[in-house]
Design goal:
The chain has about 450 residues and is an alpha/beta fold. About 35% of the residues lie in helices and about 10% in strands. The N and C termini lie far apart (about 65 Å).
Length: about 450
């Protein structure tokens, strides 16, 4: 069956009278492919509106067919191929299945290639069922053929009046008119995910917006109910525009920022920012850790650090992120090269200060690694770097690092006895704290 045209099956008018569809000739594909599709059309089995199954159905199948909660759940999890057949069974299955079939249509389905534009009511009916769209560079242009693009550029896709979730892929918003942008940035939108370089012209190698039209301006004006916004790299949003947007976005609850958006870490975003990835260039700023420590709503933080030593003073600033669940710190150079002066005792205090943290990855070279061979009980978790991915492995890692801290304290005490000037009071205090915790 032609994948581009599977949407255009029986419309809702067919079921107004409550009659069954029993082997009716509803072609879901192109008329030119009717010969190849005949096997599908001729073998459509139907269940009557009185909920009586075919005479040769098993008792289990009859029970399933007579319990709406069961087959409604099945339809909600069925794939598109199954749904295309299911909606032709009867009115009840059509009513339940058609919203699932059109919830997240493919790019081909959104072209409405086989539906005449004069059938406005039918087109609006299907468009009104769409809830999620993955928007690409060709979504509302019909296809890569140049003549087809110019012929249908402005009206290739109807307005999706009930769209709630939108995902824009790379280059998908390049060279879009205001009319095209308004067909996807509709007032009903609740969630918008912007991929990397969404307005990036891959051929010209630069940002380009046709006629000065900004997708971000259109989104700000057209989406008052927006609750979640995720921005990828190269979004092209200025500090001022983002500030203006946050002042008006009264329904916004969650903001996620990928690398390259560090200039958007303003005061207004603090209670909203749940996920952040930071690039190494920005981490070179002297106040980078201080700014991060103020983003108190953060649940996910991924830091790419440059060639600079990570000290306990820097790491301790992140202890203020009490909602942190995922923390990844990795070097831009090879793993095992970048140094970290944080002691085992200090790392224990850091982890214990973040009670929600259940996913930790720190790919840095800690000085206490040299004490690992002195721990009698072998560490039974993968890798030597600080890492865990659930509460159980977190407890196991803390047990292990406590043993390292004990050895660390003993070595520091022995060294202090031999040469008191070789260790400062701060280091001894940290080691003592680690041993007391152990």
């Amino acid at each position: 069956m032609d994948e581009d045209n599977f949407w255009y099956g029986p419309s809702e008018e067919i079921f107004q009278g409550g009659n069954d569809i029993r082997n009716e000739d509803f072609s879901l594909g192109s008329p030119s492919n009717s010969d190849t599709d005949s096997d599908t059309e001729d073998t459509t089995l139907c269940i009557s509106s009185s909920n009586c199954l075919l005479s040769n159905a098993s008792p289990a199948a009859e029970k399933i067919g007579n319990v709406p909660e069961i087959w409604m759940n099945i339809l909600s999890q069925a794939d598109h191929i199954t749904l295309r057949a299911a909606i032709r069974v009867n009115r009840a299955w059509y009513t339940e299945g058609i919203p699932h079939l059109w919830h997240s249509p493919t790019e081909a389905g959104l072209r409405f290639a086989r539906l005449a534009r004069k059938q406005n009511e039918r087109l609006d009916f299907y468009a009104g069922l769409v809830r999620h769209v993955q928007y690409s560079v060709w979504t509302d242009r019909g296809g890569p053929r140049r003549t087809y693009v110019f012929a249908r550029k402005a009206h290739a896709m109807p307005k999706l009046a009930n769209l709630t979730s939108l995902e824009c892929l790379t280059s998908s918003l390049s060279e879009r008119t205001a009319g095209q942008l308004r067909t996807i940035f509709v007032p009903s939108l609740r969630q918008v995910v912007i991929a990397d370089y969404v307005a990036y012209d891959r051929y010209m190698g630069r940002h380009e917006e046709l006629g000065g039209v900004s997708w971000f301006d259109i989104m700000c004006m057209e989406c008052p109910l927006l609750e979640t916004l995720s921005l990828g790299e190269g979004s092209g949003i200025s500090h001022e525009d983002f500030h203006h947007f946050l002042c008006r976005a009264t329904r916004l609850q969650t903001v996620k920022l990928d690398r390259g958006n560090e200039h958007l870490l303003i005061d207004l975003v603090r209670p909203l920012l749940k996920s952040l990835k930071v690039c190494p260039d920005w981490m070179m700023r002297q106040d980078s850790y201080e700014i991060l420590s103020r983003m108190h709503a953060l649940e996910y933080l991924d830091i790419a650090v440059p060639d600079a030593t990570i000290t306990s003073e820097k790491l301790s600033k992140l202890q203020q992120l009490k909602h942190l669940v995922h923390l990844h710190i990795w070097p831009t150079n090879d793993i095992g090269v970048m140094r970290c002066t944080v002691t085992a005792a200090e790392l224990i205090l850091f982890i214990e200060a973040l009670p929600q943290l259940v996913d930790l990855r720190i790919w840095l070279e800690f000085e206490f690694f040299r004490f690992e061979e002195m721990v009698k009980n072998a560490y039974d978790l993968p890798g030597r770097y600080p890492q865990f991915d659930n509460r159980e492995s977190r407890r196991s890692y803390l047990d292990y690092i406590q043993k390292i801290a004990t050895v660390e304290y003993e070595v520091a005490s022995s060294k202090a006895e031999q040469d008191p000037s070789s260790i400062d009071g701060h280091s001894m205090r940290d080691c003592t704290d680690g041993r007391a915790t152990a």
